[in-house]
Amino acid sequence: MSYLGNISQGIQTTWKGMMLSIQYFFQARKGRKKESVTEDNYFEKANGTFTVQYPHEQIPVPDHGRYQLHNEIDDCIVCDKCAKVCPVDCIDIEPVRSPEVFGQTSDGTPLRIHAAKFDIDMAKCCFCGLCTVVCPTECLTMTKEFDFSTNDILDHNFSFSKMTDQEIAEKKQEFEDYQADKLKAKPELPAIKKESDVMKKPAAKPVFKPRIPKKK
Amino acid sequence: MISFAFYLAFLLIFVVFAVYAERKTAAFIQNRLGPMEVGPKGILQTVADLLKMLQKEDIRASAVDIIPYLLAPFIVFAAVFTGFAVLPVNADLSGSTITSGVFFLLAIVSLDVLGILMAGWASNNKYSLYGAMRSVAQIISYEVPLGLSVLCVIIISGTLDLHQMSVLQSGGILSWYIISHPVLIIPFFIFFISGLAESNRTPFDLPESESELIGGYHTEYSGFRWGIFMLSEYGMMLLLSILASILFFGGWNSPMEKIANGPIWSTFWLLSKSLLLIFVQMWVRWTLPRLRVDQLMSLSWKYLTPISIVMLFVCALWKLWLIG
């Protein structure tokens, strides 16, 4: 390229670049609208500042977003399905059986088991949402809350049980008394004893056996 | 003496808000918001940074050459700030009336290269030394077109005194040199580009280049001493912008001939012209990428220097035939 060609190219490219950046400078008067991802024009925001000043303002999350788990413990029948289906074992349930039906959930399902412990460790949770799918009373849901960071990882363990230690002990004693009464009434039947033994064992996980196609 | 007190106070306040303006300009050009937390719209961010910087430990690496290492930032700042001595503030405050005015300014400001070389050498660190050597090569190269473009103005005005030069340009926007003598438009651009190189600003920030030299000659500095380097860099920007507005844009003269001519107004005009040029410097910084060393040298020696020599000749003819 010739000497004068170099100069003219240098001036032209510099001018073009400078004009481009000053456009951005003036467009910065307008900021990004805090629209949800479900809005139609969510991806059409090329102009203006893009920053969202997070703690002060945030983009609304969609209703079906999968964030923090919440258990409405009054509606929970402690069926343990969520704990069984959880791929990362983040739900820890300790059931205490009751001798009789002691209440009803809001959809009319009878309550037979007390939840002595219903802990969800959100630090382990993989946000797959399987537990909310299997929940028969729909008491376990994923909320819109996503900002639950803590300084101590143990604080990520959310406890939903409302029972006090004293209540738990009472209910346990109640059920033991009931069992003992039952045994006294029918001492010759060993089947009940056997059943209670089985119940103490941790629930078996469904085993997944991959089918390996045979080579021909 | 009054102009000294004025420029020292103004420089210190200017640096605080220029750093803020720089960060905001960068942010807006890059679709960001910039500092927003400290004070309304983040205006006190630099004050907070300054307080943090002043409290920092003065770290000295064990292998530094201690005397030049400690002296360097002050030599750089003293060299840059001495340049302010000859700048007028307004029609009544003329600064130092040295007959060699603008030559004194250019000569004393070139001394900052000594401080930069001392800093880079004394840091005993290859990146600092690279930065310092690049800086020396760059400043010495760009002195030539800078001096020649200033010489174009001197030919036309016939004086070296910056105050006298401002007086000659009084009488509204039409008597500013860049408009009354359009032959000075090219020397202005050469002056501006060389000025960027003199003050180590992007796209000529090779001596500092964070991405390759980790800060260049001030890598080993921390806290207050580092702050002095930063102060000198912004001081250099301000000095060259004020110089450009005096040489080409009428200095402290109002753009309207009879309106807004009081001492406060004329100070306002001088500073607003310079701050506008500083905005252009920031705008350039966030637009253009850094030059390579060989490109830097070829720009200076192959393009700016020959063109400014030609412009010097053209200005001399202009002076001879049109002004007489």
From TrEMBL, chain A:
GO terms for cellular component: membrane. Residues 193-216 are annotated as: Disordered. It comes from the Bacteria. SUPFAM superfamilies: 4Fe-4S ferredoxins (SSF54862). Keywords: 4Fe-4S, Iron, Iron-sulfur, Lyase, Metal-binding, Repeat, Ubiquinone. GO terms for molecular function: 4 iron, 4 sulfur cluster binding; lyase activity; metal ion binding; oxidoreductase activity, acting on NAD(P)H. This is Formate hydrogenlyase subunit 6/NADH:ubiquinone oxidoreductase subunit (Chain I). It comes from Ekhidna lutea.
From TrEMBL, chain B:
GO terms for molecular function: NADH dehydrogenase activity; oxidoreductase activity, acting on NAD(P)H, quinone or similar compound as acceptor; quinone binding. Its EC number is 7.1.1.-. The chain crosses the membrane at residues 66-89, 101-122, 142-162, 174-197, 234-252, 264-283, 303-322. It catalyses: a quinone + NADH + 5 H(+)(in) = a quinol + NAD(+) + 4 H(+)(out). Pfam families: NADHdh (PF00146). NDH-1 shuttles electrons from NADH, via FMN and iron-sulfur (Fe-S) centers, to quinones in the respiratory chain. The immediate electron acceptor for the enzyme in this species is believed to be ubiquinone. Couples the redox reaction to proton translocation (for every two electrons transferred, four hydrogen ions are translocated across the cytoplasmic membrane), and thus conserves the redox energy in a proton gradient. This subunit may bind ubiquinone. Belongs to the complex I subunit 1 family. This is NADH-quinone oxidoreductase subunit H. The lineage of its organism: Bacteria, Pseudomonadati, Bacteroidota, Cytophagia, Cytophagales.
